[in-house]
């Protein structure tokens, strides 16, 4: 037992959405909450920190496009491999942002 409980229904919805973000695209924590119309950036961040290892976590970024704290080099390597539009060491939110399945 790893001490982590099973994901909550909200966490499942967050993880399902993150799993659908296409390669080369990103969503901010706030984008995820807004898309789901529940929670907020902090709640999404908590879900990702607790259960996000099995989904493409590098596709969820801070609002300014910076990668996840503590995982910057791994995140940047994934972005480069996927062709994520970048400005320096940040995702270019203007061109990299994914707004959902209707793009």
TrEMBL record:
<protein>
    <submittedName>
        <fullName>Alkylated DNA nucleotide flippase Atl1</fullName>
    </submittedName>
</protein>
<keyword id="KW-0227">DNA damage</keyword>
<dbReference type="Pfam" id="PF01035">
    <property type="entry name" value="DNA_binding_1"/>
</dbReference>
<dbReference type="GO" id="GO:0003824">
    <property type="term" value="F:catalytic activity"/>
</dbReference>
<dbReference type="GO" id="GO:0006281">
    <property type="term" value="P:DNA repair"/>
</dbReference>
<dbReference type="InterPro" id="IPR014048">
    <property type="entry name" value="MethylDNA_cys_MeTrfase_DNA-bd"/>
</dbReference>
<feature type="domain" description="Methylated-DNA-[protein]-cysteine S-methyltransferase DNA binding">
    <location>
        <begin position="9"/>
        <end position="68"/>
    </location>
</feature>
<dbReference type="InterPro" id="IPR036388">
    <property type="entry name" value="WH-like_DNA-bd_sf"/>
</dbReference>
<dbReference type="InterPro" id="IPR052520">
    <property type="entry name" value="ATL_DNA_repair"/>
</dbReference>
<dbReference type="InterPro" id="IPR036217">
    <property type="entry name" value="MethylDNA_cys_MeTrfase_DNAb"/>
</dbReference>
């Amino acid at each position: 037992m790893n001490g982590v409980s099973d994901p909550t229904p909200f966490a499942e919805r967050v993880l399902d959405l993150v799993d659908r973000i296409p390669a080369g695209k990103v969503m901010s924590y706030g984008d995820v909450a807004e898309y789901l119309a529940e929670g907020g950036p902090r709640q999404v961040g908590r879900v990702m920190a607790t259960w996000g290892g099995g989904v493409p976590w590098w596709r969820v970024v801070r609002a300014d496009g910076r990668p996840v704290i503590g995982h910057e080099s791994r995140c940047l390597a994934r972005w480069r491999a996927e062709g994520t539009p970048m400005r320096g060491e940040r995702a270019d939110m203007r061109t990299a942002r994914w707004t959902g399945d209707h793009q």
